[in-house]
Structures are given as structure tokens and as C-alpha cells.
């Protein structure tokens, strides 16, 4: 299929396979989620949550199947060896494209527990998938600018409480809490608007990852710092479906959980907040350097 069909036709076929896959699995997912909603007891969750995860992993496996059928991608991956699918992880990654999500799910499913993403509140209205994310207890966040939070500090508390409730649910069964610390996809325009000090990244936002560590720091086995590089340029979703994502480089670095920061009060203690942001900025500087090195090797 990849060799003789035109790219737009491959894109249509890939989209239909993704749609059919979702329409098959999401109703099953919702049925189990409704039972969980009607019986909101911990004992019930302990039985139904693993079932919901298996359904989601079946959806991901089918996605990997149509990706293999329609895509001709060279995968260059390092750092996923020795991870534990029965442990808890906090996963952090740079964000350039909607394809990032499918790349992460394709590579990490089976190596670590199911990824649970922090999502923008608006995404709950995405057809079909919004319901699936709700059923899987993905946390939906109303992200506000720092200026808005300064004018309305009570909004900061609401987001923190929503994150805390989500993370408490994650503590019942092994989970990988996933956060795109940039808060949005990288574009040149956003990079210039932010006056980002990094060459290939937007400024990181430490609040979500800080609260996740504060709530679940004792459970996390490690922090996985994931770097995704598209040597041919980050594809938009249509380019991805059309098979134009020719090569992907992924590097996964396992970091120790900073226990001294996890026990601090990020929201109320300026010293803890400064220390956390410095820790995050160092991770981001190392990531930026790694991206630069990977892109430089591309042309050799």
C-alpha cells in the first residue's frame, strides 16, 4: 500500500482505519465507565480500572497496526529498555505535533503503564475521543496565563484541586502520568512571542508536574524525560496520516524523583517554587542541547 498509492489516498485510508478503530473500542470503554460512574466505590474501581486500561491498550495496538500498514517510518529509539509496566511513572515530553501522542503510545505501551495525559478543558468536546479521555479519567485542565492568575488567584487553586483529584485516582493502579510541560505545541510564532531562551523548545510550565509529584511522589518509580525529534520537520496530523513522517528519533532518559521538591508546597512556598523551576529549566536546557545534537547529526 505504501509504495504504490498516492499520499492523499493513504491519508484517507489511515483516517478511516483510525475512525473505525475508535468507533469500535470507545463504546465498549464508555459502557464500562458508566458502570464505574454508577458504582463509585473503590472496590469497584479496582476491578474496572484495569479493564478500562486493557480496552485502551487494545485501541492503541490497533492504531499501531494501521500505522504499520500505512506508514513507512524509520524509528530511532533509545532508552525504553528495562522499564516496568507494573510501576508508576511521571512522563515529561516536548510537544510539536498531534502525532506526538500516537508516537508515545506506540512506543511506550507495554513498557510502562497506560499514559494518562493532562488535557486542555476544550478537548473534552473532541468527537468520540473526548468521551474516551473522560472515561479513562484523564485530567482536563483550564490553563490560565500568569496575568490572569495574578488577577484571579482563586483560579490557580481550582486547577490544583482538579489535578490533585485526578492524581489520587491514578494511585489505585499502575499509571504513567503524562505532561507536556510546554502546555502547547511548538511553533516558530509561539517561540518568538515567548522570547524563549531555548532554540527548539517553548518555556516549560512546572505547576502540573510539581503537583503530580506532590500528590504521588512516593509512588513514582522514576521520571521519564522523553525527547521527540522529527528530522524532516514536525508533521501536522494530515501529513502524518498520509505517511509523510519518514523518520522519528526518540530518546528516553530515566531520572530520579526529586524527593526534596516533591514534599514541598509549590503553590505557597516561593523558595520551593524557585527551586522547582530551576530544576525544570535545567532539564529543558539539557533537552534543548540534545535536540540540537540530533538535528546536527541529521545532515552528516
Number of domains: 1
* Sequence stretches where pLDDT stays below 50 over 5 or more residues: none
- What is the CATH architecture descriptor? 3-Layer(aba) Sandwich
The helix fraction, in percent, is 40-55%
First-last Cα distance: 31 Å
Tally of contiguous helical segments:
11
Strand content: 5-15%
Written account of the structure:
52% of the residues lie in helices and 14% in strands. The radius of gyration is 19 Å and the shape is globular. Helix 4 links the parallel strand 4 and strand 5. The strands form 2 sheets. It has a 6-stranded mixed sheet, with helices on both faces. The protein has one domain: Glycerol-3-phosphate (1)-acyltransferase (3-Layer(aba) Sandwich), CATH 3.40.1130. The protein is built from 11 helices and 8 strands. The protein has helices at 7-38, 42-70, 99-108, 129-135, 146-151, 153-170, 188-194, 207-216, 237-241, 259-262, 270-298, and strands at 74-78, 88-93, 115-117, 119-120, 140-141, 176-179, 220-229, 247-255. The protein is an alpha/beta fold and 300 residues long. Pfam families: Acyltransferase (PF01553).
List keywords for this structure.
single chain; 300 residues; alpha/beta; Glycerol-3-phosphate (1)-acyltransferase; 6-stranded mixed sheet; 52% helix
Helices and strands in order:
Elements: H1 7-38, H2 42-70, E1 74-78, E2 88-93, H3 99-108, E3 115-117, E4 119-120, H4 129-135, E5 140-141, H5 146-151, H6 153-170, E6 176-179, H7 188-194, H8 207-216, E7 220-229, H9 237-241, E8 247-255, H10 259-262, H11 270-298
Amino acid at each position: 500500500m505504501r509504495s504504490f498509492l498516492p499520499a492523499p489516498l493513504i491519508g484517507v485510508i489511515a483516517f478511516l482505519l483510525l475512525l473505525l478503530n475508535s468507533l469500535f473500542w470507545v463504546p465498549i470503554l464508555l459502557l464500562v465507565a458508566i458502570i464505574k460512574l454508577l458504582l463509585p466505590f473503590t472496590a469497584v474501581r479496582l476491578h474496572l480500572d484495569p479493564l478500562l486500561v486493557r480496552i485502551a491498550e487494545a485501541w492503541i495496538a490497533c492504531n499501531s497496526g494501521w500505522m504499520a500498514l500505512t506508514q513507512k517510518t524509520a524509528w530511532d529509539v533509545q532508552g525504553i529498555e528495562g522499564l516496568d509496566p507494573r510501576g508508576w511513572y511521571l512522563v515529561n515530553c516536548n510537544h510539536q505535533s498531534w502525532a506526538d501522542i500516537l508516537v508515545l503510545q506506540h512506543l511506550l505501551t507495554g513498557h510502562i503503564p497506560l499514559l494518562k495525559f493532562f488535557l486542555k478543558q476544550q478537548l473534552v468536546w473532541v468527537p468520540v475521543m473526548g468521551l474516551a479521555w473522560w472515561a479513562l479519567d484523564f485530567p482536563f485542565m483550564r490553563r490560565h496565563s500568569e496575568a490572569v492568575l495574578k488577577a484571579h488567584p482563586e483560579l490557580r487553586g481550582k486547577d490544583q484541586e482538579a489535578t490533585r483529584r485526578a492524581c489520587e485516582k491514578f494511585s489505585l493502579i499502575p499509571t504513567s502520568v503524562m505532561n507536556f510541560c510546554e502546555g502547547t505545541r511548538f511553533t516558530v510564532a509561539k517561540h518568538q512571542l515567548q522570547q524563549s531562551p531555548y532554540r527548539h523548545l517553548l518555556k516549560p510550565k512546572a505547576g502540573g508536574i510539581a503537583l503530580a509529584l506532590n500528590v504521588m511522589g512516593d509512588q513514582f518509580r522514576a521520571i521519564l524525560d522523553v525527547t521527540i525529534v522529527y528530522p524532516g520537520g514536525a508533521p501536522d496530523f494530515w501529513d502524518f496520516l498520509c505517511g509523510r513522517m519518514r523518520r522519528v528519533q526518540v530518546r528516553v532518559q530515566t531520572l530520579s524523583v526529586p524527593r526534596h521538591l516533591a514534599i514541598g508546597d509549590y503553590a505557597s512556598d516561593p523558595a520551593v517554587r524557585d527551586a522547582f523551576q530551576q530544576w525544570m529549566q535545567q532539564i529543558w536546557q539539557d533537552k534543548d542541547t540534545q535536540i540540537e545534537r540530533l538535528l546536527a547529526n541529521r545532515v552528516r
